[in-house]
Design brief:
Length: 313
Amino acid sequence: MTHPLTDRSSLTRFAWLSVAAAVATIGLKTAAYLLTGSVGLLSDALESGVNLVGALMALSMLTIAARPADESHAYGHSKAEYFSSGVEGTLILIAAGSIAFAAIKRLLTPQPLEQVGLGLAVSVAASLINLGVALVLLRAAKENDSITLEANARHLMTDVWTSAGVLVGVGLVVVTGWLQLDPIVALVVAANIVWSGFHIVRESVKGLMDSALPPKELAIIQEVLESHQENGIEFHALRTRQSGARRFVSVHVLVPGDWTVQQGHILVEQIENEIRAGLANVAVFTHLEPLDDPLSWADVSLDRPHPTTDQPA
Ligand SMILES: [Zn+2]
Ligand SMILES: [Zn+2]
């Protein structure tokens, strides 16, 4: 079960961890650059600057997403998480593109290995920091249903995969003497990173587009509704969407017209409770209507005729 939405401001501590990791790796690479004057290390440090941007983005969006619902945002602020994950997914795709570009250039005109030594040692050390933080973030993302933390973790993992690819590539070249192996390994790494970035961007777009809940969660709702259909209750106009860590469900509940308001309300409260018991962080809205009134059945679609300008259907 994920943690309740009420204490989500504590998630920012994971973003702070990511900020600290970015500052540490920038410091490490800058120090190595100052010691050696290697331009490669300088551009490496600049790349870690991208991590800092990503971490600060995650920090600010998690801060906003944790705010409780208010009058101007009555459905809460949880969607803010998608801004951060969308940007991170894009950064991941750009990283993959630049790795692939450099690799293809080296594949076409093989270059002897650059002086590796300290540069490689520093980037491995930085990657170990990123790996540790990414694992902590991935776990927190899963426990808290946070796409922002997942995207930030995957972003850090791209650095880890890149360094691992460089190590393997350089190792293979040293063993075989075949220079092309280094860019080939880099291309494999780039393909893996593209997949990761694509996944994050797709999930962000789905959230921003108010996609329905995944089939597994829809099945939980269906099961609740079907258990009441046995008693002659009907349902329609079921609508669901995900908004960051929040889920929204709305459904019309059709009961015999001679029920009292009291009876109907007890039933919809029960249905809402059963859905809340099956899904974490879900807000359920119900609309009660009499089974035997044709009006009840004419309100299923989202777009309905305008009361004065459109002809009645
Ligand atoms: Zn009520
Ligand atoms: Zn209806």
